[in-house]
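Hi there, hope your week has been kind to you so far. No rush at all, and the record is pasted right below.
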Amino acid sequence: ILGRFIIFYEDRNFMGRHYECMSDCADMSSYMSRCHSCRVESGCFMVYDRPNYMGNQYFFRRGEYGDYMSMMGWRDWIRSCRMIPMYRGSYRMRIYERENFGGQMYEMMDDCDSIMDRYRMSDCMSCHVMDGHWLMYEHPHYRGRMMYMRPGEYRSFREMGYGGMRFMSMRRIMDSWY
């Protein structure tokens, strides 16, 4: 298979009209009216329940998701998706206790299943991803809602629409996941 792609289906269990996506798609409503199942043929994707990469996020890797809505507890269907590029290099991210890179700072180069246990840090409100692609989770041990982080500065999770969320664990998206 050349390239990475995901196929979205209007109905559960890969039925109904479908749309093949090989790149980022900010608004799937122009291709289909609903989406209740998908199949990742290759690669990794972040899917969102709102257009323009907003709302709840979920990470999909190669596999079949015949009824992802009940699996994830979503009440809405996928509205946008982002392809996660394959990355083979070092990983580095700085997490900060407060917005605008304030408070305690810790530099991470590997997965962390609990920032409270590792750093005695009760909140993470901003970060700077220097290298690699990461998933940040609402709860320890990689549970709860998640957010995809690619290289860049994230000065305020609150201003990004994650005001009521705390990120308590972080995981690298590894090339072995593809």
